[in-house]
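Table S2 (continued). Query chain:
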Amino acid sequence: MKTRTILAAALLLSATGIHAQTETGNKRERTTVEAQGDSIIIIKGKSDLHIKLYEQQTKDGQSTMTEIYDGVYLEQIDTKERSFLDALPFVPNRKRNTHNYEPHLSGIYLGFARLPERIPQFTASNSIPLNLSYSWEFGCNLISHEIAFKNPNWGFNFGVGWGYRSYSFDGNRALVKHDGYSALEKGGIPISDEEGMEAPSYSSSRLRHFFFRIPLLIEGQQRLRKHSAFFNLGPEIEIRHGIKSFTHINGGKKERIGKGMYVHPVSVNMLVQAGYGDWGLYLRYSAIPLFQKDKGPDTYPYSFGLVWFW
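Corresponding output:
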């Protein structure tokens, strides 16, 4: 209560032009107000008012002046005003944390691709067995923009990226396109006993496609020493193109056995990223099945891996 009274008196003195001690410079005016051992220093500029409040304290028989308040007012607006973002996990240290918002979106990523049967499942699908070591994706976000919030630890990122994803099927199987649907067929099964023919054998089969991705992410970050720890998440629009199915028939050369494959050309993913500095981990999960309804196996793509930001 005493401190508030002293501060109010100082503001009143500053407003009425009554000062205990005045030092005038070329641009700024410095005023010191003393009240029963306590001191308030007011420095006035053209459009701001800088106030420091000191309190006289006694320790071990010695009297010292301790700073207990430091504030800057811009056109009567307190720059220390708090907002709802200060209640979130990444809260800035207002005395030491003066860094600008640093978005984590532009960069290169590489990870593994999976095809579970439902959301939010992470186990392998029984209907589409994959060669997990050779099912992967890579991409890069080349165009990005950010909107920093008033709180420097929070912002909004969006951009455009391009990349490639490949699913490798395990064993003697290939994704074959029929009239109206795509199916993962096993090779070497007799299809005509009368003609003495057998279905061809398949090896190193895969489904691949290219994509454009448009991520829309909200990010929180906290400065730790020289770099920031960060966490961002949000939806991502994916536009697929160049969708093709390949295989090696009877041990021969790689052949394309289908295009399009009734894969959804547009999807929506949920993207989550976290890391420190220029490196992070990501998890991407599709909210839409890979194949169109009743035209292919019911499966939802997801991927995870490492990303390098610049």
